[in-house]
C-alpha cells in the first residue's frame, strides 16, 4: 500500500482548487460555472441583462441552451449603451425579431474559441483571422498587443475582449465592449 505525505496531499488539494477557481470566472458579479450552459450563466450576470433580454426577444434561448459548442462574443450592457438612442428598444420589438436575430447570431461562432484558439487562428492566418458566424457573416480577429485580441465586424466596428475564456458546458463566452454589426 502506498502512503502519501501530508505535504503531497495538501499540494494536490491546492492545485485542484486553483484549477477550479481558474475555470470559475466572475462576470457581472457572479461566478460563471463551467457546468452550466451559456444561458444559465448569462442570466446571472448583472453586466448582461440587455443581452439576455434581447436573446429572449429573439427566441434564441433554446438554441443557446443546445449542445454546441458555441463561442459567444457577449456585449455588455455598456456596449449596448453605445448604440444610438432607441436602437435597443426598437430591436426588441416583435416586428424587429428578424433583424435582432441576425445581430445576435452575428455574435455567435460555431465551435469553441478561447484565447488560445483565437490566437492560434490569428497566427495560422498570418496576423488576421476570419471566422464565420451563425448568421452567415464573418468576424475578423487580430492581436492588439501581446495579451489582447480585437474583434472586427464587417461594418468596420472594433470590439475589445474584456474577459476571455468563460467556459460553459456548451461552449465559451468572451465578453466584449462593443456591439458588432453584420452587413
Automatic annotation (TrEMBL):
<dbReference type="InterPro" id="IPR000782">
    <property type="entry name" value="FAS1_domain"/>
</dbReference>
<dbReference type="InterPro" id="IPR050904">
    <property type="entry name" value="Adhesion/Biosynth-related"/>
</dbReference>
<protein>
    <submittedName>
        <fullName>Fasciclin domain-containing protein</fullName>
    </submittedName>
</protein>
<dbReference type="GO" id="GO:0005615">
    <property type="term" value="C:extracellular space"/>
</dbReference>
<keyword id="KW-0732">Signal</keyword>
<feature type="signal peptide">
    <location>
        <begin position="1"/>
        <end position="22"/>
    </location>
</feature>
<dbReference type="InterPro" id="IPR036378">
    <property type="entry name" value="FAS1_dom_sf"/>
</dbReference>
<dbReference type="Pfam" id="PF02469">
    <property type="entry name" value="Fasciclin"/>
</dbReference>
<feature type="domain" description="FAS1">
    <location>
        <begin position="35"/>
        <end position="180"/>
    </location>
</feature>
